[in-house]
Design a protein that fits this description.
Layout: E1 2-7, E2 23-28, E3 38-43, E4 49-50, H1 59-69, H2 75-85, H3 98-102, H4 106-123, E5 128-133, E6 136-142, E7 148-154
Parallel strand pairs: 4-5
Antiparallel strand pairs: 1-2, 1-3, 2-6, 3-7, 5-6
């Protein structure tokens, strides 16, 4: 599948991203769907893309990833975190997830969940994962993705 990322900064590789997210967001296809000066193109094997929800996610491995990220969380908190991340369920009540999430604005918590969703995918060998966000369906290429970079064009 061909994926496109638009941004206002030159792309230096997924390994070099140090933003809120440990990876980058793309849309399907070759036509940019967002504003930006630079248009970056990628290709990912279909079998290396985790689909919406948790259809392609191994529950036990996902819980292990979440335990590594939040070792002090109890089983109930990990289940809530799983719902918010692996299942990409934006309607889950995450108020039980301690101070780290409790005082965040809703969008900030959702950013953290999306980033964790990318880590879960990467830990399970995926190079991209579907996300439901404010733009509809997008694809997150997490840090460590083996997506093939096809180059950059300018607007």
């Amino acid at each position: 599948m061909k994926l496109t990322n638009c941004g206002n900064e030159k792309f230096n590789g997924i390994d070099d991203m140090h933003d809120v997210f440990e990876g980058i967001f793309c849309t399907a296809g070759e036509d940019p769907q967002h504003d930006g000066k630079y248009i970056n193109h990628f290709e990912v094997e279909d079998s290396k893309i985790a689909e919406n929800g948790d259809w392609d996610i191994d529950y036990d491995k996902a819980i292990e990833t979440l335990k590594n990220e939040y070792p002090d969380f109890d089983e109930d908190q990990l289940d809530v975190l799983y719902e918010c991340t692996a299942k990409d369920d934006v309607d889950t009540d995450y108020s039980s997830l301690t101070d780290e999430f409790e005082y965040l604005e809703d969008f900030e918590a959702r950013f953290k969940f999306q980033n964790l969703r990318g880590k879960i995918a990467a830990d399970q060998g995926f190079d991209a994962i579907c996300m439901n966000d404010e733009y509809g369906t997008s694809y997150f290429l997490p840090y460590g993705s083996k997506a093939k970079y096809l180059g950059c064009s300018h607007r």
